[in-house]
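hey so i finally got around to running both of the ones u sent me last week. sorry it took forever, my laptop kept dying halfway thru and i had to restart like 3 times lol. anyway pasting them below in the order u listed, first the sequence line then the structure token line for each. didnt double check formatting much so if smth looks off just lmk and ill redo it

first one:
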Amino acid sequence: MLKVALHERTISYEEIAEKVAPQVTGHTVRRRLAEKHLHKWIAKEREHLDEEIAEKRLEWALAHRDWTREMWRKRAIWGDEVTVERGGGKGKKWIFRYPKEKWHKDCIEPTAKVGERKVSQMMTGCFHGQKYGLFLPVFPDPNSAGGGVTARSIIHVYAQYDFLGIWKEMKEEIGEGEIFLIIDNARTQLPFMRWLRSNGVTLKEIPPYSPDLNPIEHIWSLMKAKLNKYYPELYLMKGPKDEIRKAIEEAVTFCWELLNPKVFDSLAESMVHRIEAIIEADGWYTKY
């Protein structure tokens, strides 16, 4: 039973019984496997990896294995974009109730209509050590054929708020040693990356499909949790889309500022463990 379950991980208890011991029930198979501490769990979701990508991830991790916590804290600036959707990522609401109150109106959490949930605001942010860095709204590109956000939209934000000046100040502060900006190297980001390089910003590219190598991804989860805690009214907020986007922008900026600076610092330092985890997994999936 154990061998079949580990060989065919999605197989059901009943199917194992049919293959190995037709005379027993699926319940018996479940009990026998539990005795061996083997249970069924919901599969964790991660970016799709293949042999080629796993190899690139492993090579990158090995190349940075000697970087210390202090190097990651001082030499890396982490940047990324996040889209905050009205009602998106809303956590489950736990309540006290008696069994018979399952459908009581005070025990129900209403959901937003599908069309209402699609109002969203994109934000771009970065951090360095214990410093927050930029966290600003990104708006649709007026020159885009589709009318959406493009790399030009992000360039506009970074130029308008003088990221290049901030970059120069950071370099002067660090003194010896080079600093790097680490951002998603997706194809849509290529014009933004070219603009950064043309203005003297040094980029360090991480392998594709590797959010576990950009700790700022964890910041987005923390920030959205605070958004759901402090601004539950956004979930069902009604009104013109521009007003809702503005409300999202203000709320999420406040939640960004609520984050403890030590969180940023510890996430930068976690790169040491993230890299070791990738090496141990031969470039495949990690817990991060």
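and the second one:
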Amino acid sequence: MNLFIINRKNANKNIFGAFKTAAKKNHIKIIEVNIDNYLRFKLSKRDFVYRISSDANSRYIEKEYSFYKPITLRAEKGFNILESIYDNVVNATMLHQFYHLPIPKTEFINSSDKLLLKNTTKKLGGYPIVIKLRGSQKGMGVIKINNYKEYQKQTKNLIEQNLVYITREFVDSPGLSYRAIVLGDVVLVCYKNQSVHEDEFRSNTDQKQRVREIIKLDKAEEKIMVKAVNVLDIEFGAVDFAYDKSDADKLKIFEVNYPCNFVPAQKLSGIDIAEKILIHLLNK
């Protein structure tokens, strides 16, 4: 058996290094795959596949390899890999809403119609509101809207570019965001991000400009995190969330990231997350 790690060339060295150490410790051969060499390999059902990068080529390689039916971190409960629901904020948010998980109030219709925009704003509790583009990462494509004029201008612009988005209520958590790393039915670690920019409303920007601190979730919160990952038919993920100060400090889930950069959590907690992922795959 081999561990195939799909990655962009010369990227994500820390994540690959963590897997390399874990693979060596467990006597498993690790192979880094990218657009230059992926066609050289024919996988078996005993091989493991994990994608580090989220670029289009890496996702394409993952889809190609799926036809070999290797061991992955997907639950595969009727889930079609070609849909990549965890790469799609629209579908993932719909699932979270269907399963009554605590997410920000969300509207999905893409339109610049005057009446619809006003009704949407009312449903979301008034301005400010937030637009989030499908496929955006690290705070990119997350737009804070403060009034109707901005809302109409932004929606018209996005629609003209054929960009898909969701519209959400604004979650007031100045300078603070949280991430829970879930594997199977366990929260491995949860930590708080304290941004140096307290006026930054986005939860995942300025990766180097923040202070991280381990926190402890209660049992109910842990169940929420596990469910947020599992309903997407994946067995590993990073749940980004916050506590909304304007709504009695209620927990609000923003999204689940898969794949995710677990190295900061591994260093912060001392938990060998890469090895735990590998052992999870070995036990499947």
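quick thing i noticed on the 2nd:
Residues 77-82 have pLDDT under 50 and may be disordered.
anyway thats it, ttyl
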